Amino acid sequence: MKDSIWKLNPSRYLKECQRLIDLCHSVISGQTSIIEGARSILAYREDMGEGDNKGWNIFVVVESDSDHLPVGEIRQHWAEDALRAKDIEIKNFESFYRKPMIEACYAISTEYKNVVEQVAAPDA
Questions:
Q1: DSSP string, 11-65
Q2: Which end of the chain has less neighbouring CB within 10 Å, N or C?
Q3: Which of 44, 42, 46 lies closest to 60, judged by CA?
Q4: Is-contact 26 34, C-beta < 8 A?
Q5: pTM assigned to the model
Q6: DSSP secondary-structure letter at 72?
């Protein structure tokens, strides 16, 4: 089991691992945008003990470089004309970061699928 905040609660750990896997798949499939996916995945970084894992750096970069872009619920507070301009920027931004984000999501999904299998497997 990875060193996470849930290491003393294996069932909670497995649930959080599965949520992270599902989130990665949602980004890969396009259900979750690149920006929202990076922000959501990044929220798991410290809790899952991945603070020093360089494979997670893409999420830091995307979140940092997109913090001025309105995605999600915040959009309801923006004027339509301002959103039209930002939507072009969002589209270009997400296109630029799509490939490294998808690669990172695949890697994390695979890694945590293996973790789940190891934790869930009965001792031999």
A1: HHHHHHHHHHHHHHHHHHHTSS-HHHHHHHHHTTTTTTT-TT-GGGHHHHHHHHH
A2: C
A3: 42
A4: no
A5: 0.88
A6: G
